[in-house]
Amino acid sequence: MGYSPSFVEKMREIVADIRDAEKDFDIRVVAGFDEACSACPHKGETLCTGSLKSNNKVMGLDSRTIGHLGLKPGGVYKKSSLVKLTVETVEPDDLDHICEGCSWLEYRVCKEGIAGLKENYQKN
User: Fold this and answer.
1) Is residue 47 classed as helix, strand or coil in its secondary structure?
2) Average model confidence (pLDDT) across the chain
3) How far apart are the C-alpha atoms of 116 and 124, rounded to whole Å?
4) What are the distances in angstroms from CA 94 to CA 28, 54, 107?
5) Which of 84, 28, 103, 90 is nearest to 64 (CA)?
6) Residue of 39, 38, 43, 89 whose CA lies nearest to 66
7) Dihedral, 82, 87, 89, 94 alpha carbons, nearest 10
8) Which of 14, 80, 83, 99, by CA, is between 20 and 30 Å from 24?
9) Rounded to whole angstroms, how far apart are CA atoms 37 and 18?
10) Dist. CA 48–CA 61, nearest whole Å
């Protein structure tokens, strides 16, 4: 999909931390550049330099996610609270709207992830 090795590694670290049930930490909600963007080769000073379309896509994904979860940009939330909120408010098919335009949507990986999260969360 054209991701740089440094971006892939950064995403791997972020996902590992989020999946680690033993770790709970603060997450600041950002509509725009965030920790994942720090390793992207298209990171500009204030927007994605890949293209205006790329920047708009990322901003749309952020906005729809924040809106669906009822979060406040700039708000700080515990990871455990965000996971619980995701389990309670996001259904796999919600990603068709929340993640509209994301190239990963067609692979269903995230839909399967949401379904698995909900299943595992209910067991615990």
Assistant:
1) coil
2) 92
3) 13
4) 23, 22, 15
5) 90
6) 89
7) 110
8) 99
9) 17
10) 13
